[in-house]
Each structure stands twice: as C-alpha cells, then as structure tokens.
Amino acid sequence: MEAINALRELLPDEARDIKINLQNVLTPGPLNAAQTWGVALTCAYTARNEPLTRAMLADAKAAGIEDAVLADAKAAAILMGMNNVYYRFRHLVGKEDYSQLPARLRMLRISQVASNKVDFELFCLAASAINNCESCIRSHEGVVIDGGLSTAQVHDAARIAATVNAAAIALETILP
Fold first, then answer.
1. 43 catalytic per annotation
2. Catalytic residue among 127, 133, 149, 161
3. pTM
4. DSSP of 66-119
5. Judging by beta carbons within 10 Å of its beta carbon (0-12, 13-18, 19+), is residue 65 exposed, middle or buried?
6. I need a labelling partner for 175 at 20 to 30 A (CA). Which of 10, 28, 104, 114 fits?
C-alpha cells in the first residue's frame, strides 16, 4: 500500500481517524483481496478524487488484482453515476407515474461483467452508498446476499465506501 500510505501522510490532523481507518479497511477481512480493492477503487472513482484514484489503482495493481476487477470497478462507478441519479430521482419525487415509465437507459455492462457478477454488484452497492441512492442500495444488497455474500461482507464494503469517501474529502481540504 505504498501509494495509499503516501497519501495518508498528507492528510491533515483533523483526519487522523481517517488515516487509521483507511489502513484498516484495506486489509482484507470478510472480503477477499479482489473484493476489497475492487470496492475501494470503485469508491475512489465515485468520490472523484484523482490522487486517491491513482493511488488506489497503483496499489491494487501492486497487490496483483486482475485487470478484469479493475475494469469492473471503473464500470461500476460510471454506471452508478448514471443509475443512482435516475433511481434516486424516481424515489425522491415519490410519484408512481415516474416508476411506471421505462428507464430507457442502457445498462448492458451490468450483465456483461469482466470478473464476476456478485463482486460487480458489490462494487455497485458501494458506489450507491456514496451516492445515497436507497433503491439502488436495496437492489444491489439483495443481489449480493442472494449471490452468497454475507452481511459481514456487505458491512465491510460499506465501511470501505465510508472511509474512502472521507479520505477524498480530507484530501480536498489540502490540495489546491
């Protein structure tokens, strides 16, 4: 985690907890290494922080994470950038009329993953947590649980999402 550790050193004192949490959540626990790095990279893309994204990508590659996982992380962040806005709108507006209309948004990549479907859905869940889309969170959580992941694994993905998002905010406070 050379690149991440270098960024951690840049974090201000106000982000001391985030420094510690960032190291802790990137240590595989309930999630395997590919899931951990895939979620983390998806979250860095979702948080739109270039230095954090570059560091996550470099350390994921150094950890031997396959290109398919890296591609799925990027695709999950991009697709949830669209889906989370659309489905959050439908949920928040609260009118059945909108829910009856077809989305007519291309989402083929969700069914054509490069790594595996359950992990891709986990990456989408983490992005949806950052983007605050309740319907997407519920949908992706159901898919990963039905796909065999545990609540501990889903919980770990949420912890990673929260910490990576906070690290992005902390970095924005110090970078011009």
1. no
2. 133
3. 0.95
4. -HHHHHHHHHHHHHHHHHHHHHHHHHHH--HHHHHS------GGGTS-SS-HHH
5. buried
6. 28
Which of 11, 136, 158, 164 is labelled catalytic? 136
Domains of the chain (ranges; CATH) run: 2-172 (1.20.1290.10)
pLDDT, one tens digit for every residue, the chain (176 residues): 899 999 999 999 999 999 999 999 999 899 999 999 999 999 999 999 999 999 999 999 999 999 999 999 999 999 999 999 999 999 999 999 998 999 999 988 988 999 999 999 999 999 999 999 999 999 999 999 999 999 999 999 999 999 999 999 999 998 56
Helix (H, G, I), strand (E, B), or coil: what is residue 48? coil
Residue with tokens 């998806």: 42
Could you confirm whether 136 is annotated as catalytic? yes
